[in-house]
Amino acid sequence: MSGLLSGLGAVTSLFDGLFGASFRGVDFDIPDTRQEVGRRVQRFFFPGRDDTVHQDLGALEGPIAIRGLIIGADYVERARALRAAFLEEGPGTLVHPWLGEIEVVLAQPASITFSDREIRLARFDATFERAPTTAGGGLFDTLADLLDQVQQLRAQVRATIGRILAPIRLTVAVIGGVQGFVASAASTWRGIITAGQGLAGLGNALDAGFRGMAEVGVLTADRDYGGAVSDVLEAVPSKIAEAGAPPLRPAIGPAAGATTPGIVIVPEAATTALLDGADALAAIAAPVPSLALAAAVQARLEAVVAASTIDHVSQQDAIAWRDRLDAALTASASDAAVLARTAPIEGQALWSAVVAVRDAVLADYNDRIGRLPAVRVLPPRATAVSAWAIAHDLVGDDPAAVRAMMEDLVRRNRIRHPAIVPADLPLEYLA
């Protein structure tokens, strides 16, 4: 271990001008970067006059040009990961050594260069532009904006874990503490899956994730150690979210590509399990305080994904789930704010990303709540009547509608004898 760390330190000492950065969670180093900044000024000329007028049209933040290096034995793999990040659609998170964490889009095609004279080194040139602060489609497609914010938070959590478990911090005590934390996390998830209602059948689907957590001790303590630990911690909650919110399968596709559907559970059960797991993870003692926070944020953002597919039947139902998710994300934001006092970079970055997801959750739920019916209450009646008669009075003469209303009345109010509903019983019904 000491030999590895001293080797890394020797390499770093040869390149004092390098600064760490990342794009969509892929790490690299920056020797050179350039950005044009200033004001958008329009100059006007007038006939017969020698002087000119300049009109200020606002601040200008020009493109961010980066010349980056990927150094290490895994330079080919990381170059491929960066290539995939460049090909991905939509804004991405750029962690810049001077500008901080910003949302950017690739302004023009990037170039990645390999040379036979430079072993274990790849170069790239990329030009980014800041993404708009308000998504154009967010006003109309709140769910798409929410899922985009979740993706950005995922990348930020991975970058945070990679930073707090950088090689310079990997002492023997820290590595042993990480193994203990992951073992406790695995035990927590096993307990939640065993005790949770509606989670039957998830055991086999989570085997690969639990195997990865058990094998965390064999991970190599290099610059990719933090990313590998992030993957291990994310595997189980992401699988639970996937079971609660399975991706849509294409309606048309080649027969050879057909696959059997995986384990599917109701999204309410998946969301509840993930929120409970996040609370438990946040309370586990970690070798680095921000590790427990990052693991809890991972679970809570997967809960947001699972909750996005809940088919709410009423405004009250949606409000209850909205408030529950809001409370969970607010807790993570508060923890990140506390962390920022001692670790400003990790704490502020996580706080910003969590707050962005929280705002997107509230926007999406408020949009959905407006399209849902409300639950209303019928006051007590003068005499006992049947549930069928009450349903008939509420919806009219359509037999199908009367039957649906009667079944909802019986289920919602736990009526034991639908033929005789007590007169003094107030009834909730879906408007």
Count the E strands.
9
Count the domains. 3
The secondary-structure element order is HEEEHEEEEHHHHHHHHHEHHE
- Residue windows where pLDDT falls under 50 for at least 5 positions: 1-14, 134-140, 248-261
- Principal-axis shape equals globular
How many helices? The count is 13
Organism: Roseomonas alba
Protein name: DNA circularization N-terminal domain-containing protein
Pfam family, one: DNA_circ_N
Domain DNA circulation N-terminal: 21-104
Describe this structure in words.
With 431 residues, the chain is α+β, with helices and mostly antiparallel strands. It is 50% helix and 19% strand. The protein has helices spanning 2-14, 75-87, 142-164, 172-195, 202-205, 207-214, 225-244, 267-282, 289-307, 315-339, 344-369, 387-395, 399-413, and strands spanning 19-23, 26-44, 53-71, 92-96, 100-106, 111-115, 118-130, 375-378, 427-430. It has a six-stranded antiparallel β-barrel. A two-stranded antiparallel ribbon has the order 8-9. The radius of gyration is 27 Å and the shape is globular. The model is unreliable at 1-14, 134-140 and 248-261 (pLDDT under 50).
